Structure formats: C-alpha cells, structure tokens
Amino acid sequence: MADLRVLLIGATGVFGSRLAERAVREPGIALTLAARDRTKLDALAARLGGLAVRVIDRDRVTGADLAGFDVVVDAAGPFQASAPTVIVAAVAARVHYIDLADGRDFVAAIGDHDAAAKAAGVSVTCGASSIPALSHAVIDALTAGWAGIDSIRIGIFPGNRAPRGLAVVQAILSYVGHPVRVWRGGRWTDVPGWGMTQRWAVPGVGRRWASVCDTPEQDLLVARYAPRESAEFFAGMELSLLHLGLALLALPVRWGWISSLRPASRPLLAVARLLLPFGSDVGAMDVIVTGRDARGAPVDARWTLRADGNRGPYVPVLAALALLRRFGTGRTPAPGARACTGMLTLAESEQDFAALGITTRGVEEDRSRLMHQL
C-alpha cells in the first residue's frame, strides 16, 4: 500500500507540532508540514528529520493548494468565528479532512458540508481532539450496558508550565463573559462564560480551579447521550492569579462595558508566559458520569487522566493520530461530514498514553461500593 500523503496545517503551533512529532513516527505516513511562517516551518522540519514544507495561510487556502494529498489536517485554530475555508478547499480537491476544532458554532455547522462531502466521496471529520473525540470514547467505555445517563461533567486542567499559544488564548477569550448555553436541571439555560467558578478535586492531582467553557461538548453530549439532568464542561488554570484574574476581567464583558476580551489576547498571553516558572507541569482531564445500570440501579463512573512533564498538550492530538492510522490501514470513514463522536474507541489512544507516560484510571461505582476497574 502506498504511503498516506498528509498535509498538516498549523504544524508549528502548540498542538500541530506535537501531532507532527507523533505522526512522523508512524509507518506509512508521508507528512508535509504547512504554516504561515517559513522560518518556523524549516526549523520544525529539520528537527523532525527533513520533512517537506508548504507555506499556507489557512484563511486563504484553495483546492489547488491541497492537490496531491490524501488527507489534510487543520490544527491551526482558533476555530471560534472561523470560516470553513479549509473544509471547502478539501472537498473541492477531493481530499479527506480532519480538524481539532473546539469552536461550538464551527462544529455545529459541520452538517452543512455533508452533501458536498458525500458527492466528492470524502470524509470530513470535525473535532478529532480531547473533546469531543476522546471524551466521547471515555463515556462510551464508562457507560457500556447502562440503561441511561443522568449527568455528565468534564473538566480539563492544564499545568501552568505547559506551553500555550495565541490561538488557545483567543479561543478562551472569545466567550469569557458572554452567555454560554448549558444543559442544567433538565433544561437549557444561560450562564456566564468562565463563570460557575469552583474548586474541583481531581483524583491523583489535587484541587484545581474550574469554570464553565463554551465548547461543542455543551451540544454534543446532550444530543448523543440525552442526560436527564445535566451536561457540563469546565476548564481551569492552575494558578489562582490567572484563573480568578480572568474571572474578574470577565465582569466588564458581562456588564456590557466592553464587547470582548479577545483584543487583549496578546498582552494576556504575555502575562501568562511571565508566570510560566510557577505552578507545575502536571495536566489532567476528569470525566464524571452518573446514571442507571442495566438493572436500573444508580451508578457513578469516573475516568481521570494525568499527564506529567508537560505532556498534556499531546492529549488533544491523539484522536487525530488515531484517525490517520485508520486511513493508513485502509479503514477510511464513510463519505460525509460529521463531528468526531463515536468514531474512535478509548483503546485506540491507550498505546499513545503508554508511550507518552500518561496515566489513566477509570472506575465504576454503584453509589456504595467499587464494582470494577476499567
């Protein structure tokens, strides 16, 4: 079988560079790196063994730019308020598409491309990242055989020393202080972005700050699992100064004094980088689900991931890596456009967790005793 020709857009970013590091190790993948900055591209290509590079602006990419590739991966971001330029170009070029999108509106609109993708005979997969791909794989494993789900809570907690890029900061600031639609109490309600601030006890990690985020999960969890009570997604910064400081900065947006914090992305990123020596290099992801087992008895399940040594930023790229492995072995998803939910199993990422020294633990309880460990 010929090598899978993959174009990785956003290759020099925090997540793109890590996906490149992992993908270049895979047999049968011929990787080309793409980004706006030629100097950064050449440096990354040299570090990874002399890969081919392309200077591409994701906002201006055309089908001609993608000709000759089998798959294009968009790891650039931010996806909030982003046009689907790469998707349109991929479909026009009859190239399969994968992204790491975390923009709620962007993912919600993926169905708009379904007919065109089917006509072109290509698959368009949106959100091949920690959410929704990994989170749904975890929930599927935790709740196999359950009669129903009552509540879902997901939290992601990067260590303060983890590298951070401008796109991530822009993504967060796009919703801070704005109303976020969440499923609580069995109905839709609005809460402030970066609100509902609380302390979250993460097993094996400790207590971290957590605030509500505007992500595709708020919609996808409800659509796929129909929880009776709630489906909530949180994230938190390790340092109180950064987390609570952002909650304070959200107030002028909530009060209508300013329209958005996004214009402050660069100075706030600079402040965050000044504080990199503080805190830890331990990141975590926590998934908590309650519901009813096959007998109708109340049951709780929890899965926790711990990533030491600043390995946390690898987690968001492992779902895309798993999809590339599928493409490389001829297991191409059916033509059409869809969010990356129910497409991957938790087992498909476990080999990467082990290789990176990332530990996970999943348990199911019947509200009174530990029943089994996944």
User: Which structural class best describes the helix and strand composition?
Assistant: alpha/beta
- The secondary-structure element order is EHEHEHEHEHHEHEHEEEEHEHHEEHEHEE
* C-alpha end-to-end distance: 36 Å
What is the CATH architecture term of the largest domain?
2-Layer Sandwich
The description of the largest β-sheet is: 8 strands, mixed
Instruction: Give the spatial strand order of the biggest sheet.
Output: 10-11-12-7-13-14-16-17
Number of domains: 2
Number of helices: 13
CATH topology type of the largest domain: Dihydrodipicolinate Reductase, domain 2
CATH class of the largest domain: Alpha Beta
Radius of gyration: 20 Å
Number of strands: 17
Shape: globular
CATH superfamily of the largest domain: Dihydrodipicolinate Reductase, domain 2
Average predicted confidence as pLDDT: 94
Name the beta content range. 25-35%
What does this structure look like?
- The protein is of the alpha/beta class.
- Helices cover 32% and strands 28% of the residues.
- It is built from 13 helices and 17 strands.
- It has helices at 14-23, 38-47, 63-66, 85-93, 104-108, 114-120, 130-142, 166-173, 217-225, 240-254, 265-274, 318-328, 347-356, and strands at 4-9, 29-35, 52-55, 71-74, 96-99, 123-126, 148-157, 179-184, 187-192, 198-202, 206-212, 230-235, 283-292, 298-307, 336-339, 359-365, 370-373.
- The longest helix is centred in the middle third of the chain and has 15 residues, at 240-254.
- The chain is globular and about 50 Å long.
